[in-house]
Amino acid sequence: MKAILLAAGLGTRLKPLTNTIPKCLVPISGRPLLSYWLEKLANLGINEILINVHYLAEQVENYISQSPYRDKITIVKETALLGTGGTLKNNAQFWKDEEVIVIHADNFCLSDLSGLINSHNVKPAHVDMSLLLFTSNQPTQCGIVVMDADNVIHEFHEKVSNPPGNLASGALFVFSDSVYERYFKELKEHTFYDLSKDIVPNMIGKMQGWIVDDEYMDIGTPESYERAQKLI
């Protein structure tokens, strides 16, 4: 399995902290957020990682150049943001015929994710993708899913005013090797696509949910950032 860490975002909700540091490098208990992800992926046995960069890209590149995991990492610099789906399409050669875990590097996760990988390995034959889920106390701000008894997702509601529950997408995906051919092949290159809005809805009935077994959150606001500091 390969990994893609999406790390190009501007971090606007976390200003003024992100005026001088990219969100993927904000310190959590003295360690850059990105370092937690790289360590987690190494512990899962993943040896090929692609990271896209854009905002304050030089800082991310400098950090990776000194990382003990630098030989596992390919950096892709985006001169213009392509969105999460556009990044995947433009870098298809890295992952298109492989299983790949796709992670937003500005999220914080205490789970080792072994349960997610194990769940994906025994998924039903018709399922193409596994999605990490968590219980949200702000469901209107999240993508909310509805699953059946087999954990197959049959509804996905992206940030609606009256969500049908509080089981939320963590925007952390494990793709099977069929995903590119079925969902990305016909997309245009060098075009902005949002993974959760433009691609995931096409996977309804073909993706399974896995409820995370430890803390998981978006480090998108000063409040969530402070909560992560307390947790660690």
UniProtKB/TrEMBL annotation:
Transmembrane portions of the chain: none
Domain of life: Bacteria
Coiled coil: none
Molecular function (Gene Ontology), one example: nucleotidyltransferase activity
Keyword Transferase attached: yes
SUPFAM superfamilies: Nucleotide-diphospho-sugar transferases
Entry keyword Transferase: yes
Keyword line: Nucleotidyltransferase, Transferase
Protein name: Mannose-1-phosphate guanylyltransferase
